[in-house]
Amino acid sequence: MATGGYKEQTTGWPGLSVRTVSQFTFAMYLYFILDFFLRFPARIPGYGSLRPTLLVVAFISLLLFAQRNKLKGRFEDPIFKSIFVLLGYIVFSLPLVEWPGSVVRGSIDPFIKAVVFLFFTALIIDTERRLKWFVGVFVFCQVFRTLEPLFLHVTQGYWGSATHLGGGDFAARLAGAPADVINPNELGFVIVTAIPFLHYLLWPMGWKSKCLYMAIMPAMFYALILTMSRGAFIALLVVAFLVFKESRHKMGLIVMAVVLVVAAFSVMTPIQKDRYLSLVDSDTKGAATAEGRLRGMVGEFKLGLTRPVVGHGLGTTPEAKFHKLGRTKASHNLYAELMIELGLIGFVIFLWFLYQIARKLSVVRSQFQVLTKQVQCYYSRLNKCLIAVFWMYAVYSLNYWGLSQYYWYLFGGLVIAFGRLVALEQNGFSDQTEGKSSHRSKVTSRYPLAERIR
């Protein structure tokens, strides 16, 4: 049926209508991504007083609501269902947590700002072209956030942070740029998030992409060294292992790894070497802080078990640590944070959300054989990248909080959008014209529809 000259096409399967949201909505979301990651309010005088993040989120939400007829069936995805269960649990458990007032006053807002990334990404990234643009803009932002403080360090001696070595001594560590207020561990997280995308999406392409890769990657590794983030280094090892596991050129990767290690140690200061060696050597100066971090994680899990059923409340980790451990700090472990704030029930629900993401990536991978070679090439590389990022996030979350942070939700939304696009391609729907479903063609397939998206 046509409405206003627009003809709807459906696949005959829930959630796989090929109708797309407007190009303007997509442009607004890209602007939101740039504004959020590049910190426009901190860079443009007076801009922050307009509350741009809140305004853009509200505007995009209104745009999606106005186009809700195009989103029919989208919420049937298991990842969406798991996040709805999490949201429902947070709401209905609110009267039972220890500090419901703190949740309402200060914790709902950052959590909602994080979760909207899942909804916006999953609902707006609905064509292959938009997927490529979104991934490109997202990776550009992470690379920019890495190279900016590195450039300031090389040209002006900028560090941004320092770490205590014991005995009153401190060592400088690279943190985010002045406009991008992130500590060294967070900068390390940004770096190891970008590296899998650069490796899988740039290196297999033509010589221009390879040259860009060879120009960016050494700078990314050097910036990671300067952060002295041991958690990010472990996350990088996870990515390296997955790249090695998938590669057909294992000997070449081994040689490259040896060269990188030698090069890295040649540019490290004695303090930086000591910091990274403390991961495996208990005789180094940094071993005490590593052991302290482990004790802190154990303490956080014990704190979570003081209210094991529903927890202390969303966003109340600093408050709980202050009242029961005598210090006010965010959690250094997502899984402990879940226990402290949501209890065992919320812990299980969030892990179910992560399981659904991993399962979706596995299902998508099994569908590639029926795609065209050109489409399969990009989607296969992106799938490998997302699998590497998933496991890197899962490991890094041992050293990083995240319940009210964007990264798992944006990643979950990206996986939903990716899975839906693969299913559409599998069923013969291609992006011949951006945002115009009436011009899309459905190719004949020898497989029944239900069989092809099983």
Précis, in short:
This protein is mainly alpha-helical and 454 residues long. The chain has helices at residues 23-38, 40-43, 52-66, 78-93, 100-124, 128-156, 184-202, 207-227, 230-246, 250-267, 270-277, 287-304, 317-325, 334-365, 373-396, 407-426, 449-452, and strands at residues 2-3, 6-7, 160-166, 169-174. It has a two-stranded antiparallel sheet with strand order 1-2. Strands 3-4 form a two-stranded antiparallel ribbon.
Notes on the structure:
This protein is mainly alpha-helical. It has three domains: 55 residues, no CATH class; 202 residues, no CATH class; 155 residues, no CATH class. The chain is 65% helix and 4% strand. It has 17 helices and four strands. The strands form two sheets. It has a two-stranded antiparallel sheet. Strand 1 and strand 2 form a beta hairpin. The chain is globular. The chain starts with a strand and ends with a helix. The N terminus and C terminus are likely disordered.
If you average the pLDDT, what whole number results?
A: 83
- Helix-strand topology string: EEHHHHHHEEHHHHHHHHHHH
- The residue ranges in which pLDDT falls below 50 over 5 or more consecutive positions are 1-14, 432-454
Structural class from helices and strands? Answer: mainly alpha
Number of strands: 4
Give the key terms:
two-stranded antiparallel ribbon, 4 strands, disordered N terminus, 454 residues
